[in-house]
Every structure is written in structure tokens, then in C-alpha cells.
Amino acid sequence: MPRTPASVDLVSVTPCPASFETHGVGYISGVAVTESREIIIEATPDEVMDVLFDLESLTEWSSAHQKVEILERDDQGHPSKSRQVVKIVGISDEQVLAYTTHDDGVSWTLVSAKQQRAQDARYTLTPEGDSTRVHFELTVDLSVPLPGFVIRRGSKGLMDTATDGLRRQVLKIKNGK
After folding, report:
1. What is d(CA 17, CA 45) in angstroms, rounded to the nearest whole number?
2. Domains of the chain, with CATH numbers?
């Protein structure tokens, strides 16, 4: 599905010198990959946040999420810690994420995982008339060596789901379908 004209991709790969290793031609580990993307969603920030807080529904609209379990909730009832089983480009991982709610969005950081050293992500929501500009940024530091093309393909899939998939889910709920 084509992205809306307002979608923008920004990518950077940042070596982590203390842990950078090569494992044959094109295989790397110890590299933090950071990507960001913006998209306009024809919904209010509250409608977008409702979908972001509904972690249990991730398995319905994110093919990467195989299982999601809420471990803790904050005083507002929003998830503050979850365990997720994810599968991206054929590689499975079980991750525990800790969430922080902000006035303009939500963020999370990795507590534990088998295939990642670190993960930090943030959705920032900005109202624009009847719509919301959604900025998503994700940094992942893998602990396993993978070919660069696999990392790029996995990153693209994650970013597509985190923006275009989010947009489809928000509009599906908003339109009652």
C-alpha cells in the first residue's frame, strides 16, 4: 500500500564501537539502527493514543507480533510493562518493554530480550486540524550478527507497521469497521 504524501523515512546506522564485530562479508552485530518516519492520520491524538495503548490488539494488525501480554499497568490503566513475542524476517525474539506516557505520545525501552541489546522507541503526536501528525522513532541494537540487507528489510517492515499499519488500525476503529 503506498504511503501518504506526508510519509517521510529517515534512516541512520550507528556503530557501537565497544561491541562492533564483523562476521564475514556483510554480516554485522553491535550496530544500533535508528529509523524515523512521519505520517498524517485523519484522527485526533486521543484516537491515535487509544490504539497505541491497546497492546492486546497488536497481534491483529502487526504481523510481527505473535503474542502480547500486559505485565503491569500505571495508575491510568495504561500498559507500563509488556512481554511480547515478535518475529521479524524469520527471526523470533521474546522482549519485555517498559512504557512511559508523555503529554504528546508514548515511548518504550527494552528491559530484556534474547536477540537485542537495546531498543528505544517513541511516538510523538502533534494535532494538525482534524488530523494528527505522528512521528515515530525507533533505535534497535541487535545482539546477533545479521546481513545488512536483512536488517534493512526488517527495519522497513517495522516502520511500515508502526506508521501505515497504525493508521489503518486507527481509521478502522474510527470508522467502526
Report:
1. 39
2. 8-174 (3.30.530.20)
